[in-house]
C-alpha cells in the first residue's frame, strides 16, 4: 500500500508539472508526457502492476486537470502499457523493441487524446523524442530507487 501512495504523490506532482510548467518551458506541442514516461519506465523494470496503476491514476489526474473527457487519458495510457507489455512478453524480448515502443507511445497518445488539435507530424515526433529522453531518466531513477521505495 505504501508504494501506491508514493506513486500517487509522484503522479500528482508530475501531472501538475506536465500541464502547467512544461508547456511554458518547451511550448505546448513539445512538452514531454511525464505520466506516460514514468508508466513506461515502471513497465521497463518489469513492474506491470505499478505501471498500470501509474497509467490509470495518472491518466485520471491528467483528465481532471485538463479539458479532456474524464477517463480518456487513463484508457489510452493503460491500453498502450498493456499492448507494450503483451508485445514484449510474447513477441519481442529485446531492448530495441521497448525503445521503439517508448519512442512512439507519446505520439500515439497525442494522436488519440488530442486528435482535433494535432499540430503536425514534426511536432508529434519532437514531443515523442522529448518524452523518450524523460523516459530514459525515469528508468535510471526507478533503477536507483530499487528496493528502497518501489518494492516495499
How would you describe this structure to a colleague?
- The chain has 152 residues and is mostly helical.
- The chain has one domain: Orthogonal Bundle (Arp2/3 complex 21 kDa subunit ARPC3), CATH 1.10.1760.
- Helix content is 78%, strand content 0%.
- It is built from six helices and no strands.
- α1 (2-26) packs across α3 (48-65).
- It is globular.
- The model has no long low-confidence stretch (mean pLDDT 83).
Quick summary of this structure?
The chain is mainly alpha-helical and 152 residues long. It has helices at 2-26, 34-44, 48-65, 72-91, 95-113, 121-145. Helix content is 78%, strand content 0%.
Beta-strand content estimate: under 5%
What is the SS-derived class? mainly alpha
Write down the overall mean pLDDT.
83
Looking at the overall shape, the CATH architecture is Orthogonal Bundle
CATH class bucket: Mainly Alpha
- Give the tally of β-strands: 0
What Rg do the Cα atoms give? 14 Å
When the domains are counted, the total is 1
Order of helices and strands: HHHHHH
In DSSP terms (H or I, runs of 4 or more residues), the helix count works out at 6
Give the fraction of residues assigned to helices: over 70%
CATH topology category name: Arp2/3 complex 21 kDa subunit ARPC3
What is the terminal-to-terminal distance?
Answer: 9 Å
Instruction: Report low-confidence residues grouped into runs of 5 or more.
Output: none
Tell me, what's the shape? globular
Largest sheet: none
Amino acid at each position: 500500500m505504501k508504494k501506491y501512495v508514493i506513486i500517487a504523490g509522484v503522479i500528482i506532482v508530475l501531472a501538475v508539472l506536465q500541464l502547467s510548467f512544461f508547456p511554458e518551458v518547451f511550448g505546448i506541442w513539445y512538452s514531454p508526457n511525464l505520466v506516460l514516461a514514468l508508466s513506461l519506465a515502471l513497465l521497463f523494470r518489469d513492474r506491470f502492476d505499478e505501471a498500470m496503476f501509474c497509467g490509470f491514476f495518472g491518466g485520471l489526474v491528467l483528465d481532471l486537470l485538463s479539458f479532456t473527457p474524464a477517463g480518456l487519458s487513463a484508457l489510452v495510457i493503460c491500453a498502450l502499457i498493456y499492448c507494450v507489455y503483451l508485445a514484449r512478453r510474447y513477441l519481442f524480448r529485446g531492448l530495441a523493441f521497448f525503445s521503439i515502443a517508448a519512442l512512439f507511445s507519446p505520439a500515439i497518445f497525442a494522436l488519440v487524446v488530442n486528435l482535433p488539435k494535432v499540430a503536425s507530424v514534426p511536432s508529434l515526433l519532437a514531443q515523442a523524442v522529448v518524452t523518450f529522453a524523460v523516459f530514459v531518466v525515469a528508468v535510471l531513477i526507478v533503477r536507483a530507487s530499487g528496493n528502497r521505495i518501489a518494492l516495499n
